[in-house]
């Protein structure tokens, strides 16, 4: 995707926040912003007084196929124009100073944006220019500021990275992926009975070869093996492989 | 920060995960990775077979001052070499296929990494090359895969963006910022007594100018104003300004 060739088949996913880039300097950053928006399911992009005008081919070159977002983007002369039809506007701001304003975390902001859109409100997220960030007049037009909890000794955040974090948090507000799950592919997690069947096979062969000959130590050794094989989930396919391993090791094929 | 001039005063913040870039192609992405690591309080960077060798000046040019991370980075020929001294290794992987492996969300992965480092274990986070991602041999060396919950219809994630999300989630595991708070600057949130004092001032002047002359509607009108002024927190400074507004409107200075 290096030109205006249409890109990915992106479209608005319901009522999603408008991303407003205020006085963006580099068209490349507008492109990478569109890419980050697509990652998080955002679509509506507004540009306030982009330094080099709009549209700019360089934006398409860095958007990795998020062309539809760039094609639908609209440019405005002022922040007031860009937010006139919105109900809530949040402004990202790494170092708010001398300002009396609610400050949200990225996560808190995403949750509030989701709640507002669920009420049918149109919401916007403002991001400032690359170096200076939003000025005091811009921030006075925001309902709240969003400040990311990040390393205070290194606050230099790339514009598209800032957009990425909000897009990611926006996506997460409706994501229900479990924090850990075993991807089992075309097999299934083994039942306790299947595991026990394998343990019996293993112990039988270990008895047979003499590994468990010390009757006093035998119960503890078996228990330790059982602990090992129950530490994580095991799949049916893995048990079949392990059965094979035991069989082959205990009854080696003669050349 | 455009050259090797030292950059920000970064150092390891305790036992933090090692970021392992496997066969990275573009030195620029190594630099932006270092920047994202710094944002999230990560420091240790390892490179497995970087395509153009290491070090590369172009990495320093995109690191925005995260130079210390690049200076401390180490290069390896194989993944096995790069992870040999680590206890847990997680691999980021957008589309794991035909693999039997635990899959974590970014958030779940960060929480597990934090728990492991708290036990004194050394942990690593593997990221694959820009286009192809990690291959099956790489992934077989990971304890678990991390898959970001993101828009499935646009999975093209920039390398530094992928690192940014994990660095951000890592930072959040020990962050206690409230999701919303009023930034009050050099003033304080007003007490209910101070607010009531203002309400009395306002009502007195509204009575005086005749705005509340309808005795039947008066209680409801006063209640509506009270609702408005208690909708959000108000600061002492804002109340002083509002007192001034009421005073000036009701007793305009002549000429």
TrEMBL record, chains A, B:
Where the record annotates domain tRNA/rRNA methyltransferase SpoU type, the positions are 18-168
What's in the keyword line of the UniProt record?
Methyltransferase, S-adenosyl-L-methionine, Transferase
User: Sorted alphabetically, which Gene3D superfamilies does this protein's record hold?
Assistant: 1.10.8.590, 3.40.1280.10
Parts of the chain that traverse the membrane: none
Gene Ontology biological process terms in this record: tRNA nucleoside ribose methylation
Task: State the source organism's domain of life.
Answer: Bacteria
Q: Which GO terms describe its cellular component?
A: cytosol
Molecular function per GO: RNA binding; RNA methyltransferase activity
Q: Which family does it belong to?
A: Belongs to the class IV-like SAM-binding methyltransferase superfamily. RNA methyltransferase TrmH family.
What name does the UniProt record give this protein? Answer: tRNA (Cytidine/uridine-2'-O-)-methyltransferase TrmJ
Record organism: Acetobacter nitrogenifigens DSM 23921 = NBRC 105050
Its taxonomic path starts at: Bacteria, Pseudomonadati, Pseudomonadota, Alphaproteobacteria, Acetobacterales
The gene it comes from is: trmJ
């Amino acid at each position: 995707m290096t030109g205006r060739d249409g890109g990915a088949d992106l479209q608005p996913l319901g009522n999603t926040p408008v991303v407003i880039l205020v006085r963006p300097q580099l068209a490349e950053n507008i492109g990478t912003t569109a890419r980050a928006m697509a990652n998080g399911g955002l679509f509506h992009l507004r540009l306030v007084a982009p330094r080099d005008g709009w549209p700019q081919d360089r934006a398409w070159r860095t958007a990795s196929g998020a062309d539809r977002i760039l094609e639908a983007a609209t440019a405005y002369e002022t922040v007031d124009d860009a937010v006139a039809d919105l109900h809530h506007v949040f402004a990202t701001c790494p170092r708010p100073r001398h300002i009396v304003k609610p400050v949200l975390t990225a996560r808190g902001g995403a949750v509030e944006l989701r709640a507002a859109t669920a009420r049918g409100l149109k919401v916007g997220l403002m991001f400032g220019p690359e170096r200076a960030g939003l000025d005091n007049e811009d921030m006075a037009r925001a309902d709240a500021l969003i400040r990311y909890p990040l390393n205070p000794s290194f606050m230099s955040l790339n514009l598209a990275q800032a957009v990425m974090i909000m897009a990611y948090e926006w996506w997460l507000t409706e994501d229900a992926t479990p924090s850990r799950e075993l991807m089992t592919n075309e097999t299934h997690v083994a039942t306790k009975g299947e595991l026990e069947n394998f343990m019996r096979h293993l112990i039988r062969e270990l008895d047979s070869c003499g590994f468990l000959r010390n009757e006093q130590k035998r119960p503890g050794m078996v228990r330790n093996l059982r602990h090992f094989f129950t530490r994580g989930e095991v799949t049916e396919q893995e048990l079949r492989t392990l059965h094979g391993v035991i069989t082959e090791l205990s009854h080696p094929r003669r050349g």
